Every structure is written in structure tokens, then in C-alpha cells.
């Protein structure tokens, strides 16, 4: 159990805030136009990634290992943009600046995992192209469907374990949150600490 949370075997108490106040983009003139533009970019991203995935599923000629990686990259991009953009629009465009601690960790999990998976997907696509260029006659033997699926499963497992191993149970982050918690000013009515995540 020490792999995931080393503090479980010791008598350690972690204090975390109830919520964060995010005030990152306030005070910038005409910032609402940026959010409208971001919404249209999100719609184009969703439509484009859905189209790529649909074409790969429907066309039997595209059922090669390379297009399995392209499908996975479109899927991860769709999940990542769907995790990031609606929450950013909710926070800043609709003025919901409070985000609970658990929601913030969930939001960070999806953003971090999808960003890491996109990088690893580019690595797997570059490996596919490298094998196709260096060993063109051995390409069908070296890069198979089974190899590409195992590579994708390894990427997903690596990114998920990396998150659960480093981010939430990190002593450094917990110490930072505890230090910030002890240095904040409590509001007189609710006695809830206020945090400013972005300035």
C-alpha cells in the first residue's frame, strides 16, 4: 500500500482546503470574446475528432496499426478537450470561480492524463513511421495490430499509474497545501479558508 500513499503507514494528517477560488483572467478587457472563440474551437475539435474516428471505423482499408494509433490520438484529444474547455468556460465565462477540492483533482487528473497520453501517442506514431522507413520489408511483421494495442494499453496504464503515484499522494503537494492552509485568512462568517489558485 506504500506505493500509492506512503503516509498510510504513518500517523500523518493531511489538511486540504474545501475549495479554491480561481481568479486568473479577471480584469482583462474584452476577455469574453476569447471565451466565445474558445467555444467555437472546441466545437470544431469535437466535430473533427469525431469525423476522424467515424471514418476510421467505417472504412475497412484504414484498419491498419497506424490508424489504430491515429484513432487513439483523436479519442484522447476528444476526451482532453472535453475535460478542459467546458470547465474553463464554466469557471470564467459563467463566473463560477469556486471549485471544490475533489473536483479540482478530478479536473487535473483528466487534463494531465490526456496531455501525457497525447505525447505518448505521438511517440507511438513516430515509432510506426520509423519502422516503415528503416525496415519497409519487415513493417508488416514488426508493427502488428497486437503490438499497437499493447502499446496503447501500456500508454494508458503508464499515464494512469503515473498520476496516482505522483500527484495526489505526493508529500510535497500535501505539505504545500498544508502550509498554504495555515497561512490563509479565514472569513468571519463561514470560517472556510480562501485560496487563489491563479493570479
Short overview:
Helices cover 65% and strands 3% of the residues.
Structural notes for this entry:
There is one protein chain. This protein is mostly helical. The chain has helices spanning 31-58, 65-93, 101-134, 139-142, 145-166, 171-183; strands at residues 19-21, 98-100. Helix 1 runs antiparallel to helix 2 and helix 2 runs parallel beside helix 5. It is globular, with a radius of gyration of 22 Å. The model is unreliable at 180-199 (pLDDT under 50).
CATH topology assignment of the domain at 26-155:
Rhopdopsin 7-helix transmembrane proteins
Q: How many E-type strands?
A: 2
Number of helices: 6
Overall geometry: globular
CATH superfamily of the domain at 26-155: Rhodopsin 7-helix transmembrane proteins
The CATH C-level class name of the domain at 26-155: Mainly Alpha
- Helix fraction, binned, reads 55-70%
CATH architecture of the domain at 26-155: Up-down Bundle
Kindly, what is the distance between the CA atoms of the first and last residues, rounded to a whole number of angstroms? 37 Å
Radius of gyration: 22 Å
Beta-strand content: under 5%
* H/E element sequence: EHHEHHHH
Summed over residues and divided by their number, the pLDDT gives a mean of 77
The secondary-structure class comes to mainly alpha
Describe the sheet with the most strands. Answer: 2 strands, antiparallel
Lateral strand order in the biggest sheet = 1-2
Which stretches are poorly predicted, pLDDT < 50 over at least 5 residues? 180-199
Domain G-protein coupled receptors family 1 profile: 48-153
Membrane topology: Multi-pass membrane protein
Protein name: G-protein coupled receptors family 1 profile domain-containing protein
Keywords: Membrane, Olfaction, Sensory transduction, Transducer, Transmembrane, Transmembrane helix
Amino acid at each position: 500500500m506504500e506505493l500509492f500513499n506512503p503516509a498510510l503507514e504513518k500517523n500523518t494528517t493531511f489538511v486540504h482546503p474545501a475549495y479554491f477560488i480561481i481568479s486568473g483572467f479577471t480584469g482583462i478587457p474584452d476577455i469574453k470574446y476569447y471565451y466565445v472563440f474558445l467555444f467555437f474551437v472546441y466545437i470544431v475539435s469535437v466535430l473533427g475528432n469525431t469525423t476522424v474516428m467515424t471514418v476510421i471505423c467505417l472504412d475497412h482499408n484504414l484498419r491498419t496499426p497506424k490508424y489504430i494509433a491515429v484513432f487513439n490520438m483523436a479519442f484522447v484529444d476528444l476526451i482532453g478537450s472535453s475535460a478542459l474547455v467546458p470547465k474553463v468556460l464554466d469557471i470564467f465565462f459563467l463566473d463560477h470561480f469556486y471549485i471544490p477540492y475533489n473536483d479540482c483533482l478530478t479536473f487535473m487528473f483528466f487534463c494531465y492524463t490526456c496531455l501525457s497520453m497525447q505525447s505518448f501517442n505521438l511517440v507511438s506514431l513516430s515509432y510506426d513511421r520509423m519502422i516503415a522507413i528503416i525496415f519497409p520489408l519487415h513493417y508488416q511483421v514488426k508493427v502488428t495490430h497486437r503490438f499497437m494495442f499493447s502499446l496503447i494499453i501500456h500508454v494508458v496504464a503508464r499515464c494512469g499509474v503515473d498520476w496516482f503515484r505522483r500527484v495526489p499522494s505526493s508529500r510535497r503537494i500535501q505539505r504545500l497545501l498544508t502550509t498554504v492552509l495555515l497561512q490563509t485568512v479565514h472569513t468571519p462568517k463561514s470560517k472556510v479558508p480562501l485560496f487563489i489558485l491563479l493570479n
